[in-house]
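One chain given next:
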Amino acid sequence: MAHEPDRVQAQTLRDLPQVQRLLETPESQALIAAFSHQAVTAALRQALEAARTTHLASKAPGALPSPTELIAHAAAALEAAHQPVLRRAINGTGIVLHTNLGRAPLAAAAIEAMAQVAVSYSNLEFDLAQGKRGSRTQGVEDILSRLTGAEAALVVNNNAAAVLLALSAIAPGGEVIVSRGELVEIGGGFRIPDVIRQGGARLVEVGTTNKTRLADYRDAITLDTRAFLKVHQSNFRIEGFSSATPLAELAALARDTGKILIEDLGSGTLVDLQKFGRPYEPTVQDSIIAGADIVTFSGDKLLGGPQAGIIVGRARVLEPMRRHPLLRALRADKFSLAALEATLRLLQNPVAMVEKIPVLRMLAQRPAELQARAESLCRLLAGVADCRIEISDGFSGGGSLPADKIASRAVSLAMDKYSAEELARRLRLHRPAIVGRIAVDRFFLDMLTIADTEVTEIADALRGLG
């Protein structure tokens, strides 16, 4: 004979409404209009199953949820499931080019250019003057040549693709000579030796991890040598007893021996960052002047534009890449090209580029600006209970600027009701997501990568937690 509490519990569960009855309510009909009959049915079944599980697991079960509560649970689940996974985040880490947070935020002009080609047809591959098929990258190629001083330019979808295309077109079946100190791994475990192999070439390592001389390259040349590949250490540094062969010397060796010199510049700045008080970072123009045949770099790092792989260099060397079948698989889409063109046009104006390209604007900030932003956030949080706030000095940077320690200001937060880890988690789940860093049991928001317009949003989120 069933135990009396079990019998009562089973009888209670039978009081839960059937799915069909819930579907017939006006509230469910409104959900069906928004999400579909199938989705609402599944959500209601999940809500009923959760109610049964909770009731059976409880030692002292209370009342079952009402039909209204069940529908509300289903509605909340449907809303959560239909929220976009990719969404806006506020970067409080102080890392200007944070790969996990999407790297460079775009200029308003770039966003507007993307919108223009999104809402209508465009002349993506149509020559309006000639009335016939045209090149999808012609608009950006001319600007890139003017900005960099290169004879020709080409654009693909990211810098790894640019290096892959270059090697596939220039060195298939041959050897590519690379310094051991430059056999780097870039994001996602993608390594330079892997790129060389995928390009159909054989890697020849020369020198040592910390020192590679010009003679090391010269001694490694064989009849199968197709190219030298020089990789800029854009996300790490080897310091101390170390040296690398200057690009100009390697370019002279390449010319004298009839080889191609490819430089993977990575971050690819077109602006001398020293004018902002930052350490020297080689520009694309420097590489062209030094004699590199091909220079590849990213569009969404120090250039400040969208994800893209940019190739500039000698016209005769780029020509095999234009004809290579891999180019179609690696080509940039219309949105990236529109945003890139708009960003490049801003870079033609020394004043506009600093004011309007977010990455350059961040790098040009002075301590007084960061201090004022930190004080503004502290004022907005002054009335939040159980929230201890301090402004501290610090150094930001990272990403594509490993050696650049940028003097910054950070606001540190501590709340008795939340650990630093829990506070960070709750802010990450906020909309928009707010991402900072944790140190010494406090949560830090670095002002270098936070815009003035985001300060109020951060304060509102923290007030909601107080």
Observations:
- Residues 4-81 form one domain.
- The mean pLDDT is 90.
